[in-house]
Amino acid sequence: MKITSKKLVDVVTDVQCDVCGESTSDNGRCGPQFGVLQASWGYGSTHDGESYQVHLCEGCFFTALATLKEQHSRNKASSGESCEPGLAFGLVEGSNEIL
After folding, report:
1. Is the residue at 23 inside a domain?
2. Is residue 67 included in any domain, yes or no?
3. pTM
4. Which candidate, 82, 19, 6, 86, places its Cα nearest to that of 55?
5. Which residues pair with 54 in a beta bridge?
6. Which residues contact 39 (CB under 8 A, 6 or more apart)?
7. C-alpha span between 84 and 1 (Å, rounded)
8. What's the CA gap between 30 and 32, in Å, rounded?
9. In this structure, is residue 62 part of a structural domain?
10. C-alpha of 56 from chain center
11. What is the pLDDT of residues 28-38, one digit of tens each?
12. Angle CA 48–75–35, to nearest 5
């Protein structure tokens, strides 16, 4: 026997970018499309017990990623290493697959 009932649940309809404040759902035309910069610091860290989560729109995410790529290149160059991160810096292999 199948028993049904109606239940109210909260769903995420939008995520605002924590940097620029813009909607990540293209004004309701699609579900939220966003990136997350996240950290949870543990024992031994100077930030022990602190957790961070920053939601980023596509533009702000790739601006932050470009800044990190640039810093990575500078760090490698200052240590005498030759390293030019490609366009795929930080990209997870197989991430184009549909989940």
Report:
1. yes
2. yes
3. 0.75
4. 19
5. 37
6. 50, 51, 52
7. 63
8. 7
9. yes
10. 6
11. 678 899 999 99
12. 55
Could you list the residue range(s) of the whole structural domain that residue 25 is in?
Answer: 12-80
Say if residues 72 and 85 touch (Cβ distance below 8 Å). yes
pLDDT of residue 97: 54
What digits encode the pLDDT tens for the residues 39-53?
999 999 999 999 999
Tokens of 62: 């790739």
- The three-point CA angle 56-21-72 to 5° equals 35
Instruction: With CA atoms as reference, report the closest residue to 84 among 73, 92, 75.
Output: 73
Q: Is 94 within a domain?
A: no
Task: Tell the residue number behind the tokens 């292999």, with chain if given.
Answer: 93
CB atoms within 10 A of CB 24: 20
pLDDT value, residue 28: 67
Tally of domains in the chain: 1
